[in-house]
Specification:
- The complex is a heterodimer.
- By secondary structure, chain A is mainly alpha-helical.
- Chain A folds into two domains: about 35 residues, Dissimilatory Siroheme-sulfite Reductase, Chain: A, domain 1 (2-Layer Sandwich); about 60 residues, Arc Repressor Mutant, subunit A (Orthogonal Bundle), CATH 1.10.10.370.
- Chain A has five helices and two strands; from the N terminus they run ββααααα.
- In chain A, helix 2 crosses helix 3.
- By secondary structure, chain B is mainly alpha-helical.
- In chain B, helix 7 crosses helix 9.
- Classes of the chains: A mainly alpha, B mainly alpha.
- Chains A and B meet through helix 3 and helix 5 of A and helix 10, helix 11, helix 12 and helix 23 of B.
Chain lengths: ~110, ~500
């Protein structure tokens, strides 16, 4: 698998750029991946990323889109607690693109 | 995503047969599965020196086991009826995506090693050696077929091209070349219970959250029970229904139907997946292993009925294969099959499709609906390939086409079908079925959706259609992703039970 050097540290990623070893994640890695994804990280992006990581820590899976939108609605206001807003933040889709930046494995299945 | 750029085809007024462009899709190669995934599934971790012997050995094995495969390889007369029927050919213009040409990749090898004429006069009968180049072409092009079987409808001999694709993939796996997307998912469903890899506690948390949402929306405590012993119905649905939009809207719809009808039901954390990707690789043992989870859950929970949610290929496996995979058709005297057979209520179809269940309840007046709740929508329906061409619903021929439409018409006032020749048994694949629903095949998926997008565009223009109703998780994910490339809004894609959910009366 390819290695990427981020802020002086070698990080292993898969063919699609997802982290292989989740413990190698840090904010520099997230920023680097965001640039690759052409996502301009704002505070609201970080709220999503942080929630994904907390949820993953507890459940070993990314949250379902509904769980995520509800949590973001609570944090950033009800007008932002919807799928459309998440797509504005992560145009390729919150499930895959945000997971990648958060250092989580890619969700699989019919999604 | 770092997916390579490609041109998006232009939607024309009609579905046009493109001029041939040799080799334009030969660069497409889905990511291969890594060694640990391959080995977990019992395949070699990589291509070994003995690959050719293994490939031919496996081919001989399959030919001996499946008479159908031999017939399909022998029977083709190259009449060309299938050439312009494949959405991938229509969308990509690569002649190897003509079903006959895609099959020829295997047929030429079959002739060389398994027919007398091919062994003696290979040049005369178009027989060819199995080379590394051919093997690579199999990998390229057998993952540009969604096994949708549209071509088979038009074949005068009824050759099932999908079965040849499946055999090709099984041989590839057997020599150590598997596809990452499908094989990772098979690993997850076997280890964790669903294609997503959603563990039990996360599933319970997700369902709890949905119960809160439904109660907040409707004021009615609609439940999503999990692992409830003694429930009447076990609902088996794709794990995408728990995870994704718009899939989850249909899950909410099923829950409301059970609530309104007063039917006790449960989901299972052990069998939290309807999908069975074993079908896509034609590995019978794998398919059986995946199907067995559902039998185990049904026995454990003691349910009287098994109902399948909106998932196309799952319905094919359930309707057409469960009996011989895990039911009394398997082995004859298997004690668990016999026990399940006794346990299930014979007054209902087993398994039953959720559309048939809901439609029957509406017709019997057991649930009430108000179609005007969907008056903001003009709806059309896309027949999912595996439901349309590989299964049935209800008691009448064509029930798999008529029941979903009857149900939609009961819950919406504005419905328009797409053109003949693009629906019912001639439906086009969404472009993402059969193990192709992966980002690394995005070019194939987008181009393969062109015929469906064209037919959709026509009803959008003529009848102001603004909702594409679906009964398959793959179709939902595929269209949400690819229709925006053709200028459609992703919010026009959703499930049939999403419509039911809006129209159903809960009081």
């Amino acid at each position: 698998m390819p290695m990427v050097n981020i802020a002086g540290k070698d990080v292993e990623v898969d063919e699609e750029g997802y982290l292989i070893d989740l413990s190698q994640w840090n904010e520099d890695v997230a920023k680097h991946m965001a640039v690759e994804e052409k996502v301009d990280m704002t505070e609201n992006h970080w709220e999503v990323i942080n929630f994904l990581r907390e949820y993953y820590d507890e459940y070993q899976i990314a949250p379902a889109v509904r769980v995520l939108t509800k949590a973001i609605g609570k944090k950033l206001g009800p007008e932002k607690g919807n799928n459309k807003y998440l797509y504005e933040l992560f145009p390729y889709g919150p499930a895959k693109q945000a997971c990648k930046i958060a250092g989580l494995p890619k969700p699989t299945g019919c999604i | 995503m770092a997916a390579p750029e490609f041109d998006i085809p232009e939607i024309k007024d009609d579905i046009e047969v493109p001029k041939l462009r040799e080799g334009v899709m030969s660069h497409v190669k889905s990511f291969p599965a890594a060694r640990p995934i391959q080995e977990f599934l019992g395949y070699p971790g990589e291509l070994g020196d003995d690959w050719k012997e293994r490939a031919l050995g496996k081919m001989g094995d399959l030919l001996g086991k499946y008479r159908s495969l031999k017939v399909f390889l022998d029977a083709c007369v190259h009449c060309g009826a299938c050439t312009d029927k494949c959405h991938y050919y229509l969308g990509t213009s690569d002649p190897k995506n003509m079903p006959v040409a895609r099959q020829e990749l295997m047929r030429q090898v079959y002739r060389r090693y398994f027919t007398v004429a091919g062994k003696v006069f290979p040049g005369l009968v178009g027989a060819k050696e199995l080379t590394r180049e051919t093997l690579d072409a199999w990998y390229n092009y057998y993952y540009q077929c969604s096994e949708c079987r549209r071509c088979s409808v038009f074949c005068p001999y009824g050759i099932d091209t999908a079965e040849i694709t499946m055999a090709g993939r099984e041989i590839l796996n057997h020599v150590g070349i598997g596809q990452k997307y499908t094989n990772e998912i098979l690993g997850k469903v076997i280890k964790i219970g669903n294609n997503l890899g959603l563990p039990g506690p996360a599933l319970a948390d997700t369902l709890e959250g949905l119960e809160e949402d439904m109660e907040a929306d409707t004021g009615v405590p609609v439940k999503m029970p999990l692992d409830v012993k003694g429930a009447e119905v076990l609902l088996i649905t794709p794990s995408a229904d728990f995870f994704s939009e718009p899939h989850v809207e249909s899950l909410i719809g099923y829950a409301k139907v059970f609530h309104a009808a007063g039917i006790s039901w449960t989901l299972s954390s052990h069998a939290s997946e309807a999908g069975n990707f074993g079908l896509f690789e034609a590995n019978y043992e794998m398919m059986r292993k995946v199907a067995m989870r559902i039998r185990d859950a049904a026995l454990e929970l003691g349910v009287k009925r098994i109902v399948v949610g909106e998932c196309g290929h799952a319905w094919r496996v359930a309707y057409s294969f469960w009996n011989t995979l895990t039911g009394i058709g398997y082995g004859g005297n298997d004690p668990f099959s016999i026990e399940l057979q006794k346990q299930l209520d014979p007054s209902y179809p087993q398994p039953q499709h959720i559309c048939e269940l809901t439609n029957d309840l509406i017709k019997q007046g057991k649930i009430k609906v108000d179609p005007s709740a969907n008056d903001d929508l003009v709806v059309t329906f896309h027949d999912s390939c595996n439901v349309a061409r590989a299964s049935r619903m209800g008691t009448e021929p064509g029930g798999q086409f008529d029941i979903p439409r009857e149900l939609i018409r009961a819950v919406v006032n504005n419905f328009h079908d797409m053109a003949d020749g693009t629906i019912r048994e001639a439906t086009f694949c969404c472009g993402g079925g059969g193990g192709l629903l992966t980002d690394d095949l995005m070019e194939v998926r987008v181009k393969g959706a062109l015929p469906r997008a064209t037919a959709l565009n026509n009803v959008v223009k003529e009848s102001q259609v603004n909702f594409l109703a679906l009964i398959c998780a793959i179709c939902k994910a595929q269209f949400t992703k690819v229709l925006p490339k053709y200028g459609f809004d992703m919010s026009m894609v959703g499930g049939v039970h999403q419509l039911v959910s809006k129209a159903i009366k809960l009081d």
